[in-house]
Structure to design on (111 residues):
């Protein structure tokens, strides 16, 4: 009798422990908004926003220029921005640009 009571209590504790466990505090973010445009020979753009406040917007345009040897070339110039909310509750952002002058960024906090 005492053994069956002990088994019943153990099973009850295990059941309550499993059912009463908190939900995963790091839930997988989901897409709130997404837009993508591919203009093929003119460039592209996209933007999205996720449920955990991640945001990104980027645009690429086709440009013409010359390489170091003076030959005519086409390239994609890119500019964009992304942001996210960190564990400390602050919003961090990065703005970037890549073109014939190289890759440049600006970073900061706030909106």
């Amino acid at each position: 009798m005492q053994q069956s009571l002990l088994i019943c209590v153990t099973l009850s504790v295990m059941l309550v422990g499993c059912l009463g466990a908190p939900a995963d505090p790091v839930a997988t973010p989901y897409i709130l908004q997404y837009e993508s445009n591919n203009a093929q020979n003119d460039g592209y753009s996209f933007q999205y926003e996720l449920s955990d406040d991640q945001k990104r917007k980027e645009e690429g345009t086709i440009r013409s220029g010359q390489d170091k040897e003076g030959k005519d070339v086409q390239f994609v110039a890119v500019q964009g921005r992304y942001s996210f909310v960190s564990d400390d509750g602050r919003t961090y952002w990065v703005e970037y640009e890549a073109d014939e002058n190289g890759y440049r960024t600006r970073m900061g906090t706030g909106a």
Observations:
- The chain has a mean pLDDT of 83.
- The chain has one helix and six strands.
- The first strand starts at residue 31 and ends at 38.
